[in-house]
Amino acid sequence: MITMDKITEEIAHFIGMLQMNAEQALLRHAYEEFDARKSADPEPDEQAPDDVPFEAPFEFLGFDPGVPYRSPGPGPMDGDPHRFPNMLPPPPPMVPDFPEFSVTPMVRIQDGVASGAAAAVQPELQPPGSVVTYITQAIGLSDNDDFSVGGHGLSFSPEVVDTDALLDAAEAAYALSPIGGMERPGSSAEMIETVNTIAARLEGFAAGNGSEFEIVIQQGEGIEGIFVNGELVEELPKLADYHAFEKEDEEDEADGNGTLEWTGNATVGEDGSIVVEASVTLTAGDNTLVNEAIVKNFWTAGTVTAVVGNHIELNAIIQTNAIWDADKIGSDIGDWASDAAVNDVLNIASFGRTDLTDDDGKANATEGGFPDFWAVTKIEGDLLMVNWLEQFIFKTDNDVGILSSSGVTTNVISGGNTGVNQSSVFDLGFSYDLIIIGGSIYDASIIQQTNILFDDDLVGSVNGFQTKGTGSASTSGNLLWNEAAIHNIGGADRFSVLPDAYRETAEDLADGKNTISKGVLTDEAFAGLAGLNVLYIEGDIINLQYIKQTSVLGDCDQVALAMDELKPHLDSDWTVSTGGNALINNAAIVNLDSFGKTYVGGEKYSQETLIQAELISCEPDRLGGQDPNMLVNEAIAFLDNPMAEADQQAAHGVYVPSANDGPTDDGLQHVLGH
Q: What pLDDT digit, counting tens, does each position of 387-415 carry?
């Protein structure tokens, strides 16, 4: 509010009155002119009051617009929600049987370390809650194409590839893992049982195994380094050196005059006409399956962790690559095969650890005295830090087709599918100077990856097939890639036996005394701290990080090459690709264990396991030992009446159907010719 002195206020009032008088004068002049032009109001006809009819047959009920809407009662967002306790939303659902926690913040102040304690104002010390994440991602696709391209006049109807063999192979490869059948735990007791079961199975599997797979097993209290197909290496292989997710598209370029220059399969003749280069290109593979998961668990940790019970730590990476690549290529086109198109099968695993303490095993802290006070936050029950991720992709791309050149550029794409599962979890929570656990610690980081590929291709030619152009056939060139990394924050040698002072403090906290003994306060890890933030957990800490990735692909293509029934185009170029698939699993777990020391009152168990398995089969068991040209010719069926087969005349090594035959069926609907 602005205040004015007396003179200024009088001047303002005067100016206001002057403006009002001027406005009234203007309005009066306009009104008098308007009033002079107004005609006199006619007088109404007078009527006797007795003659006026009056009747009210309906009862007056008031105004009712007929709108049934009624405003709702106050909700949780109207005003203060605590005024309406019954309207508050329910708490988020938890996993069944998860115990609740209670918090009891306390402070004790000491006049020197040896003096007694006095109560003080309670601080705002927030406790951590349990964090549990279950993620399941699944992709399924069946892309089994049936196509017929060109004027060959034939029908190619081989036996349909059955998926039972793929499922059997996947089951056999998946059963190789000693923990392949683990179910998702739903309670604290089940989580503890899961950790113990995994540890026992891995220990038993490392003791002895027999399988057709090439298996590399390493197990011990600690593993560190990078392992590629069982061998220790210095650097991680780069995925970009083996697979490119983005391919550069060929675009039309402009010359210096600004006109477009044709870069396709055509040339301009001397007379100015466009001559199309005859070619047939088939891409029946090029499928890409990607599972990617990253888990970063920084939920809670302490400079000093004291566990009264046991400390169980388990880190494991299990990787399996299985590929069946028994290709059969006909003798007429056998020299088309490219030796450069080999399969790349890689299992890549890395174990790492970061120690946040100095050379003396003391956490990085400034020099000074010891704490004079502390605050205790208590959790009644277990503290859960669980991330359970499962990713699964199952695809079939079993294509069947017959191709012939029609003297144009023909591109057939019956593969090229892409499926991606991606998930990222980042748990960032609380840090404490001291964490005391009345129960035990179960710390497990597990990564399980499986790639299974069936790429048994059959490429043959019909009798009489020939070409003077170039020809290439690639039936392999697949990539199976498993990459996993587990990195723990906390030194491997940070463990010591639980001192009596910590045990006494844990017993006092369990009895509700909320006192910290002198021996705990004088621990060198707390030097330089004015006070301690203490977390007491009555039950267990369950730190379970689990990633499971599975990719299964069936890409068994059957292709027959034939000549045009009316005019053979011998100058056509042929490019056939039935491989080039990429199955990629990528996973990483970064787990925060401790900022410094860990005291264990019970038993300490540590196990790190690496299992890398490979199965590369090139034996033609499924396709048999027959000539693929014979298989193709046996699969060719006539389109007209079988009784008229004897009357058909051969042309270019294939039978010409009658004129009554209908058009060939193109079940693919993805053929481009120009």
A: 999 999 999 999 999 999 988 889 999 99
Residue closest to 152 by CA, chosen among 499, 670, 666: 666
| CB contact set of 348 (below 8 Å; sequence gap of 6+) | 226, 227, 228, 236, 237, 319, 481, 482, 483, 484
Inter-residue contact 521 to 360 (CB < 8 Å): no
What tokens appear for 238 in the block? Answer: 């780069």
DSSP category for residue 28: H
**602-625: buried (b, 16+ CB within 10 Å) or exposed (e) per residue?**
eebebbbbbbbbbbebeeeebbee
CA angle (296, 302, 306) in 5-degree steps: 120
Measured CA distances, 32 to 29, 39, 218 (Å): 5, 13, 110
Residues with Cβ within 8 Å of 518's Cβ and at least 6 positions away in sequence, in order, are 113, 114, 501
What are the structure tokens assigned to 373, written together? 């006070």
Query: Is there a contact between 604 and 499 (Cβ–Cβ < 8 Å)?
Result: no
Is residue 107 helix, strand or coil? strand
Q: Tokens 């951590």 belong to which residue?
A: 128
pLDDT at 213: 66
- Residue 267 predicted with pLDDT over 80: no
Contact 20, 26 (CB under 8 A): no
- Rounded distance, CA 554 to CA 372, Å? 68
Tell me which residue of 537, 368, 531 sits closest to 441, measured CA to CA.
537
Tens-place pLDDT, residues 553-603: 999 999 999 998 888 888 899 999 999 999 999 999 999 999 999 999 999
Q: What is the DSSP letter of 42?
A: P
**Residues 6+ away with beta carbon under 8 Å from 163:** 396, 554
What is the Cα–Cα distance from 176 to 173, expressed in whole angstroms?
A: 5
Token pair, residue 466, equals 């020939």
- Residue 94, pLDDT > 80, answer no
Q: Please, which residues bridge with residue 214 across strands?
A: 614
Whether 423 and 295 have beta carbons less than 8 Å apart is answered as no
> Residue 83: what are its φ and ψ, rounded to 5°?
-80, -15
Half-sphere exposure of 633 (CA within 13 A, CB side): 14
Write the DSSP assignment of 468-499 as a string of letters. SS-EEEE----EEEEEEEEEEES-TT-EEEPP
For residue 651, how many other CB atoms are within 10 A of its CB? 16
